Amino acid sequence: MSLTVENLTKKYGNKTVLNNITATFKEGKCYLLLGENGSGKSTLARCLSGDEPYHEGSIYFHENAAPSDKPIILQYQTFDSYPYLKVKEVIKLFRKLVTKPFDTDELEEILDISSFANTLMKNTSGGQRKAVSILVAFLLHKPYILLDEPFADLDLHKKQRLAAFLQQQVQQNNQCLVIISHEIAGLEEIFDYIYILKNGTFIEQGSNTELLQKYPHNVFPGLSGVYFEVTGKTLKEMTG
Ligand SMILES: Nc1ncnc2c1ncn2[C@@H]1O[C@H](COP(=O)(O)OP(=O)(O)OP(=O)(O)O)[C@@H](O)[C@H]1O
């Protein structure tokens, strides 16, 4: 199965935020969306997940055996639902929704869920809410998972463990991950294909190897250097 986006255009009022986007996302692959603040990454993710209408173009799944069962889930940057449930109750609730629950022990440990499992959702920190939203995205066991800045709020060791976990998911379960992240130093080998967005348009794309070959004389190592050469900005600057 693959997810195809063809000539997608999305506007807010008169402002075009996605302009003629074409892309393919295949199962068993991990994609990285890079772009500065406001370039349209989250809007694209919301269009892909079906949470946002768009104006022109099309988004469709190939070989979707059960079209009524939405095969994609977006982990939002924030998770503001169920304020009066404890974290462990929210997880239990979502676990009940799936017939074949996904074993989340490893992910719970990486995200340190046990340390705030008894906290009411309304009292959790931004980082803790994000951890719950990542866990929920995996619990539902969809073939396509969109993650918005999953590495933020984690220390380097946890980032590396989460990256290894994500890579394992892609390979073992043949899932497709689309990750919005600027915190990619040391994690780059998990990404099969990279799209760089600017003002709602892809200004560069390719596999890690292709991009490193195309932009070999970098000031910074790896994809950070590619991003700098393509955009003139560092990945840190893109966070504003
Ligand atoms: N609901 C909305 N109504 C109006 N404009 C919006 C809305 N959501 C996003 N925008 C605008 O669309 C553009 C793209 O925003 P988007 O959040 O997709 O960018 P982004 O690349 O994800 O940015 P960031 O890295 O800051 O999260 C921005 O100019 C933003 O102001």
From TrEMBL:
InterPro entries associated with the record: AAA+_ATPase (IPR003593), ABC_transporter-like_ATP-bd (IPR003439), P-loop_NTPase (IPR027417)
SMART domains, alphabetized = AAA (SM00382)
What species is given as this protein's source? Answer: Oceanobacillus jeddahense
Source organism, top-level taxon:
Bacteria
Q: Which residues form the ABC transporter domain?
A: 3-224
Name under which the protein is recorded:
ABC transporter ATP-binding protein
The UniProt keyword set, sorted, is: ATP-binding, Nucleotide-binding
The protein's GO terms of the molecular function aspect are: ATP binding
